[in-house]
């Protein structure tokens, strides 16, 4: 689990990122979760945009993505989800204690 201080740090790091995935009408599926998992391994921190035509509730989408990719949900703001997962190979972010 992330502490409040760590989440604040990750939110500040994610601020300038653009969403690289979009959840649309189809909702969350296995293929998307696998791709997000791979992207998290490469980047550690990413944003996912939830489109207006998504039939799932944004909180359900955020939970499904974080559970499926085994990532921490840093933030859900508007229709944007920020996810973090420590990388095994490409560790770049050093979290505050």
Explain the layout of strands and helices.
Layout: H1 4-14, E1 21-23, H2 30-43, E2 45-50, H3 58-68, E3 72-77, E4 80-84
Parallel strand pairs: 1-2
Antiparallel strand pairs: 2-4, 3-4
Keywords: RNA-binding
GO molecular function: RNA binding
Protein name: RNA-binding protein
Please provide a brief summary of the model.
The protein is an alpha+beta fold. It has helices spanning 4-14, 30-43, 58-68, and strands at 21-23, 45-50, 72-77, 80-84.
Poorly predicted runs of 5 or more residues: none
| CATH H-level superfamily title | YhbY-like
What proportion strand?
15-25%
**What is the correct CATH architecture?**
2-Layer Sandwich
Strand order of the largest sheet: 1-2-4-3
* Biggest sheet architecture: 4 strands, mixed
Mean pLDDT, rounded to whole units?
94
Number of strands: 4
**Total individual domains:** 1
Distance between the termini: 12 Å
CATH topology: Translation Initiation Factor IF3
Main CATH class: Alpha Beta
N to C succession of SSEs: HEHEHEE
